Each structure stands twice: as structure tokens, then as C-alpha cells.
Amino acid sequence: MKKFANRLENLGTETAFAVSAQARAWADKGNKVYPFHLGDINLPTPENVVEAANKFSRDGKNGYCPSEGIPELRDAMAHDVGSKRGVTYTADQVSIQPGGKPTIGKFIQTVMNPGDEVLYPNPGYPIYESQIEYHGGKAVSYSYFETDTGFDIDLDGILDSITDNTVALVYNNYQNPISAESSQEEMEAVAALAIENDLWVLSDDAYYEVRYGIEPRSIAAIPGMQERTVILYTFSKRFAMTGWRLGASIGPKDVIANINRLNVNDESCTNHFHQWAMVEAITGDQSGPQQLLDTLQKRRDAAVEGLNAIDGINIAVPNSTFYLFPNVNEIMQRKGLQDLKDLQLQALEQAGVSFCLREHFGRPQADEKDHFIRFAYSGISEEDIGEGMAKLKICFEST
Description:
- By secondary structure, this protein is of the alpha/beta class.
- It folds into two domains: 6-44 and 288-397, Aspartate Aminotransferase, domain 1; 63-283, 3-Layer(aba) Sandwich (Aspartate Aminotransferase, domain 2).
- The chain is 41% helix and 14% strand.
- It contains 13 helices and 14 strands.
- The chain has helices at 16-28, 47-58, 71-85, 102-111, 126-134, 155-161, 184-196, 253-266, 272-283, 287-308, 329-335, 340-351, 382-397; strands spanning 34-35, 94-97, 117-121, 138-142, 144-147, 150-153, 166-171, 200-204, 229-234, 247-250, 323-324, 353-354, 356-357, 373-376.
- The strands form four sheets. Strands 2-10-9-8-7-3-4 form a seven-stranded mixed sheet, sandwiched between helices.
- β5 (144-147) and β6 (150-153) form a beta hairpin.
- The longest helix has 22 residues, at 287-308.
- It is globular, with a radius of gyration of 21 Å.
């Protein structure tokens, strides 16, 4: 019998998609579902970007283009990304990707050898863990602890986890799933650990522009960090275009040169006419992205209000992303439940509310005792947020 490659046993997945299947099955039975589970955006891509894509597809931008991306987009991104972070980038420090996710795997392949250790946030985006292990590395997680204002990184845990085999650290400020936002002091402390231990850093900036009333900070702007940091950039959240599959890797020239070599082997090039549309997205009218943020902020406020109205839940208002990560210990105790999956099923069948669990964002540690669930408010209307939360309150407050 033919066998498959052993490395496939180390390949993980986005288990949040399993929740989508569960919610879809419940909806197929004629039930209304309030979809808080998947971090997609049910808002249109700005019209000027759509028009640009249509124009360039008609104008013949339908063939191969440079594997590193068209020069016009790399120039525009170098300026846009650098100016928003207080650093200087040039076009040869930008590699265009078919989405934000490819940067994770290509970064890992570029800086990590089999057996090397890479630190990653847990809870966090599950593809970090998956890609490290798939490529033969040892995935070493670091965690967060809950505070009155959100979540802080366990810096002592990072320090204790660094060994002679540690080569890189994944850092996700404005974080999925917990919306954690580093203070300047925390960011400088992470940078100091990277510099002192000569680590590469992957700065996942997927939600850098999804912020409400705050100025973002970048770890690449800290002295000594730009030369060791690769930024994961995606257009998906900023322009409501998750299905367009466009992103970029931005960092030191030698790293980007090797990522470009992987581009040639993996996909030849990223969609040609979409890249031209992204030049318009970056340099053109910005009213569309602002309207997107305004809508998301209203949804955030409605979702926070709805959750905090539930007896046993108390969450801070996050300044970024479109996720909420409440502690539901009291809910579990009230209902006499031990497994979060039982709470998830009750919420779906009794209230029609679908959400993700902590376990969907990295393997829980053996000593974890708290129960958390994640709500995404990017794919559900403000009206449905209010309706869903009212029904969830009844479900969660019942015994």
C-alpha cells in the first residue's frame, strides 16, 4: 500500500473552519445562525479598488509578472508600510504574496532549520504552530495573562523558553484571537529579548490598520529591530478583501531575496491585475477603508455591550482587531459544565449563536484552568449582534 509523507502528520489546520461546518449544518435545518465564529468580513471591497481591478483585467494585465511583485506595487508598499511605522523601506525589501498566510511558511523556511526552535503566541493564529512543525522545527509557545484592560504577554515565560536552539520569535501585536495590544514598554521588552538572543522576528501585522482611535506601534521601529524583523502584511482586513488573496512580506533584503526564490517555486507570481488594483488601494481614495472601520467600531461596541450584559462576563473594550475573547468560567460553573464544546453546542442550539473556542487557537497548555471563547464581529450586522447577544444572555444565564 502506498504511503504518504511523514511530515504531513505535523501539518495542522484552521480548526475554526470546523465550527463553520457545524453552524452551516444547523442553518440547513432551517434555524437562524448568528455567525460570530469566522473572522471574515461581510462588507464590500471599496468601489475604487473593484473598478481598478476590472480596468486592469481588461487592459491586459493578465499574464505572468515578476515573482517578487510588480515594481509599482512594491514601491507603493515600501512607502506606505515604512511611513506608517516610522522606518524606511525600499522596493527590494518587499515581496508580494498571494495572501498574508504565505509569509508565515516562507519566513519559517528561510530562517529555520529542522530541529530549531521557534517561539510563537498561544493562544494565537494556529498556522504558526502548524508551519513550524511541518517544516521540522520545534514549536515553543508563550502565553498571556488576563488583566483588567485585556491581556499582557508572559515575558518571563518567553525568557525561560529561550535556548541555544531558539532562532526566531513570532510576535502578533493587535492579536488574533485575543485582541491583545502591547504597551510601548511591553514591545520594547520583547525587542530586547530578541536582540539579546539574536532572534529573527516575524511581526504579524494583519490587523495593523484595524484600530479604533489609537496610533499603531511597530516593533520594527525599535532600534536594532528592523534588520531582524519580517513584517507579515495583508490587504484582507484593511480593504475587506479576504477572498482576493493578496499580501506581502517586508523585511531585510537578504531575507526577502530568499522569500522571492520560494515565490518562484510555489506560485510563480501573485495575481497580476490584482496587484495593479492594490496600487490604487494604497495610493487612491481612502474613504472606503475609513467607512469599514467606522462600521466595525459600531459592531464592536454592540458586541461588547451585549457580552457585558451577561451575568458572569466582564470584558474590556479592545482598541484593535475585530475579536472579543471573554472568560466564561462563571458561565461554565453555573451550568455545571467541564467541556467548552458543551457550552458551544448549547449556544448554537438554544440561541443560534456560533463562536470559536480557545482550543481553536493553538494547543492549550496542561496547566490552563480558565475557559475562554472567541467572538468575531466582522461578519455579522449590528442588528444581528443585538439579537444574537440577547438570545445568548438567556442561554448563558440559565442553568
